[in-house]
Structure to design on (745 residues):
C-alpha cells in the first residue's frame, strides 16, 4: 500500500529529479515486461485491486491508450477521463476536479495537461501519487523512458551516444525529458531547430548539450535522430512557412548518409509526413517509430508498478 | 486629542540627518519637538527604548482593489496591512474597476480612505482613459481631487506619442509620471523571467529587454519633455544602468525597487508556486545583484512593495492561468533588514531613507520627516526581535505571499499616524 501519512506519496513528475539508478531500474523492469518475440504480453496481477484514473486534459491517443493497457496488464482497474467530457468544461477548477476524483479513492492519477507544472502544482495539494503524462512544454517523463528503452534495444549503452533532437525544441516536453535522461547517462546531445524554437539557454539545460541551427551539423555521425512534431498549437507565431521548414529542418533520406551507418530514427508521434520527416524516412529500415509505441506499454507498466508498490513477480 | 510622548528610542530622521537617542513629543497630530529629556505630564507615554523611531514609512506603490475588487482587498483591509507593516502612508495605483481616471473615482477613494483607513491613502491617477493607452485621462481634475502622481500601472502606455503628451501635461501640473515599464509585444505569452529557468520549466519567458526598451524610451521622453519621471518596480541590470546614466545627465528621474526583486530570484519558481508569479517577474541573480548595487550606490530612490492582493481561488490554478502579483506590505521592513541591513549592504539609516525621504521627494509629499510642525506619522521598528510571518493572520484580505512562514530578525513595532497609535506589535500574532 502507499503511505498515506507523513511523506508525500511518490509519483513520477519529471525526469530531471530522478537519479540515474532510478531510471536504470525502470528501464530494466520494462525489459522484463517487453513481449517475447512475436509472443503475447505478460499478463500479471501485481496491481490487482488498484484503481488508476487517467485524466487527459489534452488530446492524446497513444499515451492514453498505452497507460490504459499497461494498467490492465498489471491487473489494475482504470478509468479514463477526457477533459471534453468532464466538469472542467463547466468551469470547475483543476484543484476541485482533482479533489472530487481523490474523494473516490483511486490509487494513482495519470494526468496530461496543457499547462507546464500542472502535475507539480497538484502534487503539492493532493495526497495521491501523480504520474505526469505530459505537462505543457515542460516534461513527458514516460516518453523519454520509452525512448531510452527503444535505443537500448538497438545499442548496448546510452553512454557516449550522439543523439540529435531536431525540431520545435522550445515547445517540446519530449525534448526536455530526453535531454535530462540522456544527459544522466553521458550521451552527447545536439539540439537543432530554427532560432526562435531553439533558445540559447537550452545549452545549460543539462551537461552534454550543444546547439545547432543546421541539420547537417546536427546529424553528422549521429547514432540516434529524434524528430519532433511541429507544435503549431503552442506557437505564438510560425517561425517560418511549412515549405521552408521542411526544406531546412525536415528529415529526408539523403540526410541519413551523414549519420552513422546504423543510425536509428525516432519520433514521439503523431508524425506529420512531409512536414518534419519524409514518408521514405518514416517507413525506412532505420525508423524505430513503431518500436517506440510498443515499448510505451512496457515502460508504463514498469512505472505504474514502481509507484503503486506492487510486489515483484 | 491627547498628546503622545515617545521616549528612549534611537531617532533616525534622514530629512535632517539626525540620528541619536531622543524623545518625540506629539501634540494635535503634529510633531511638536524632538529632543532629550522631553516631558509632558498629560501625554500618553510610549516607551521606545531599544527601538528605532523614524518618520512614518511611505509605500508609494500598492493596489487596494477598491472599487471593484473588494473580494481581494479593500481600502480598509489594505490600510490595516500597511499599518501592520509599519507604513503610515500608501499610494494606491489606479487599476481598479472602474479605473481611477476621473475626479469622481479619485474622490471616492479619498473619501472612503478618510472614513475607514488607518493610514494615509493617496491615490495615483491613470495616465489614459481606462488605462487603455489611447486618450489622456482627466489628469487636471484628478489632481484637484487629490492624486499625487499618474501611472497606467499594469497596463503600460505602449504609444510613445501618448506618453510624450502625458509627460508634457504632468510637467505643467507638477505631477510625477510613474511607468510600469513593459513592452507588451516582447512580454506576450510570458509567465516568468526569460532565461535558463524558464527554458527548464517550460514556461513562457518575459525577457529583461521588455523592461529595458521601455525604460530607454521613457528616459528619452523625459529628456524631451522635462517631466519628472519615475520607474516603478525596476528589476533589471540594464535599467539600473540607464537610470544611473539619466541621473548623471541631470534628468529629473527616479526609480523604486520591491523587496521581492532584491530578496529572491527566478530560482524559486521550480515548484510552479504562483506566489512567485508577478510583473516584472523575479529576475535572475545578476539582475537582483544589480538592483541591490543600485540601492547601495544611490541610483535607487525608494523601496515600494507593489502589494498586489489576489483572492485565493485566483492563485490556486495552473501557473500560467494565475494572475500576476503578490502581497508585500507586511514583509517589506523584515525583508529589507534581512537582505540589505543585516547583510551589511546598507546602513539602517539608508534603509529609513528609502522608505521616507525617498518616496516623499519623488511625490513631493510633506511627509517622511520629523521636523516640528510636520504630520506626526511615525514608524517604530527594531533590528533584533525574532518573528515569523504567519500569512494566515495577515490583515490583508488575500494570502498570496511567498514569504509565509519565513523567519525575520527585526521588524515593525508600532505605527503612528497623525499622532495616533494605529498598530502595535503583539507577540502572539507573530511568534510561532
Amino acid at each position: 500500500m502507499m503511505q498515506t501519512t507523513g511523506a508525500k506519496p511518490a509519483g513520477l513528475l519529471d525526469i530531471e529529479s530522478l537519479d540515474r539508478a532510478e531510471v536504470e531500474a525502470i528501464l530494466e523492469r520494462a525489459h522484463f515486461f517487453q513481449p517475447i518475440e512475436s509472443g503475447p504480453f505478460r499478463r500479471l496481477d501485481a496491481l490487482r485491486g488498484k484503481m488508476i484514473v487517467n485524466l487527459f486534459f489534452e488530446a492524446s491517443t497513444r499515451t492514453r491508450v498505452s497507460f490504459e493497457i499497461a494498467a490492465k496488464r498489471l491487473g489494475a482497474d482504470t478509468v479514463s477521463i477526457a477533459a471534453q467530457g468532464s466538469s472542467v468544461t463547466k468551469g470547475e477548477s483543476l484543484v476541485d476536479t482533482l479533489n472530487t476524483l481523490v474523494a473516490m479513492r483511486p490509487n494513482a492519477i495519470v494526468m496530461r495537461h496543457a499547462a507546464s507544472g500542472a502535475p507539480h502544482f497538484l502534487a503539492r495539494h493532493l495526497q495521491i501519487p501523480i504520474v505526469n503524462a505530459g505537462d505543457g512544454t515542460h516534461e513527458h517523463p514516460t516518453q523519454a523512458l520509452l525512448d531510452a528503452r527503444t535505443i537500448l534495444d538497438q545499442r548496448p549503452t546510452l553512454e557516449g551516444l550522439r543523439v540529435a533532437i531536431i525540431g520545435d525544441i522550445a515547445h517540446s516536453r519530449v525534448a526536455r525529458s530526453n535531454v535530462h535522461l540522456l544527459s544522466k547517462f553521458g550521451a552527447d546531445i545536439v539540439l537543432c531547430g530554427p532560432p526562435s524554437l531553439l533558445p540559447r539557454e537550452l545549452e545549460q539545460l543539462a551537461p552534454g548539450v550543444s546547439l545547432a541551427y543546421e541539420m547537417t551539423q546536427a546529424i553528422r555521425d549521429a547514432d540516434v535522430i529524434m524528430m519532433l512534431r511541429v507544435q503549431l498549437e503552442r506557437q505564438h507565431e510560425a517561425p517560418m512557412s511549412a515549405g521552408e521548414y521542411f526544406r531546412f529542418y525536415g528529415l529526408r533520406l539523403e540526410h541519413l548518409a551523414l549519420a552513422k551507418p546504423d543510425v536509428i530514427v525516432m519520433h514521439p508521434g503523431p508524425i506529420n509526413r512531409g512536414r518534419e520527416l519524409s514518408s521514405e524516412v518514416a517507413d525506412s529500415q532505420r525508423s524505430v517509430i513503431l518500436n517506440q509505441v510498443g515499448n510505451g506499454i512496457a515502460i508504463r507498466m514498469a512505472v505504474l508498478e514502481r509507484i503503486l508498490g506492487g510486489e515483484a513477480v | 486629542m491627547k498628546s503622545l510622548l515617545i521616549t528612549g528610542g534611537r531617532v533616525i530622521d534622514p530629512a535632517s540627518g539626525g540620528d541619536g537617542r531622543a524623545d518625540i513629543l506629539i501634540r494635535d497630530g503634529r510633531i511638536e519637538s524632538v529632543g532629550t529629556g522631553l516631558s509632558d505630564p498629560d501625554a500618553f507615554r510610549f516607551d521606545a527604548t531599544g527601538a528605532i523611531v523614524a518618520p512614518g514609512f511611505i509605500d508609494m506603490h500598492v493596489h487596494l482593489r477598491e472599487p471593484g475588487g473588494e473580494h481581494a482587498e479593500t481600502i480598509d483591509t489594505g490600510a490595516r496591512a500597511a499599518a501592520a507593516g509599519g507604513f503610515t502612508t500608501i499610494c494606491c495605483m489606479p487599476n481598479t474597476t472602474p479605473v481611477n481616471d476621473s475626479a469622481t473615482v479619485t474622490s471616492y477613494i479619498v473619501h472612503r480612505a478618510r472614513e475607514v483607513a488607518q493610514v494615509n491613502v493617496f491615490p495615483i491617477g491613470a495616465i489614459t482613459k481606462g488605462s487603455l493607452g489611447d486618450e489622456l485621462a482627466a489628469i487636471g481634475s484628478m489632481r484637484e481631487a487629490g492624486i499625487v502622481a499618474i501611472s497606467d500601472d499594469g497596463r503600460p502606455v505602449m504609444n510613445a506619442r501618448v506618453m510624450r503628451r502625458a509627460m508634457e501635461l504632468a510637467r505643467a501640473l507638477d505631477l510625477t509620471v510613474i511607468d510600469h515599464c513593459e513592452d507588451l509585444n516582447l512580454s506576450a505569452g510570458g509567465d516568468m523571467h526569460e532565461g535558463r529557468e524558464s527554458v527548464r520549466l517550460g514556461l513562457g519567458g518575459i525577457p529583461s529587454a521588455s523592461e529595458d526598451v521601455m525604460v530607454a524610451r521613457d528616459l528619452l521622453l523625459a529628456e524631451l519633455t522635462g517631466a519628472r519621471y519615475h520607474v516603478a518596480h525596476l528589476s533589471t541590470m540594464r535599467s539600473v544602468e540607464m537610470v544611473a546614466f539619466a541621473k548623471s545627465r541631470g534628468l529629473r528621474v527616479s526609480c523604486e525597487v520591491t523587496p521581492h526583486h532584491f530578496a529572491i530570484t527566478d530560482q524559486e519558481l521550480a515548484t510552479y508556486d504562483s506566489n512567485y508569479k508577478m510583473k516584472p517577474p523575479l529576475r535572475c541573480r545578476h539582475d537582483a545583484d544589480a538592483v541591490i548595487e543600485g540601492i547601495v550606490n544611490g541610483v535607487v530612490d525608494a523601496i515600494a512593495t507593489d502589494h498586489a492582493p489576489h483572492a485565493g481561488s485566483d492563485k490556486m490554478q495552473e501557473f500560467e492561468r494565475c494572475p500576476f502579483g503578490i502581497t508585500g506590505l507586511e514583509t517589506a521592513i523584515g525583508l529589507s533588514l534581512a537582505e540589505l541591513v543585516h547583510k551589511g549592504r546598507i546602513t539602517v539609516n539608508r534603509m529609513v531613507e528609502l522608505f521616507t525621504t525617498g518616496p516623499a521627494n519623488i511625490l513631493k509629499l510633506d511627509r517622511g520627516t520629523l521636523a516640528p510642525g510636520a504630520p506626526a506619522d511615525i514608524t517604530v521598528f527594531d533590528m533584533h526581535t525574532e518573528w515569523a510571518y504567519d500569512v494566515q493572520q495577515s490583515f490583508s484580505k488575500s494570502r498570496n505571499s511567498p514569504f509565509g512562514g519565513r523567519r525575520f530578525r527585526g521588524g515593525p513595532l508600532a505605527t503612528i499616524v497623525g499622532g495616533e497609535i494605529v498598530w502595535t506589535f503583539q507577540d502572539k500574532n507573530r511568534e510561532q
Q: What stands out?
A: Chain A is about 35% helix and 15% strand.
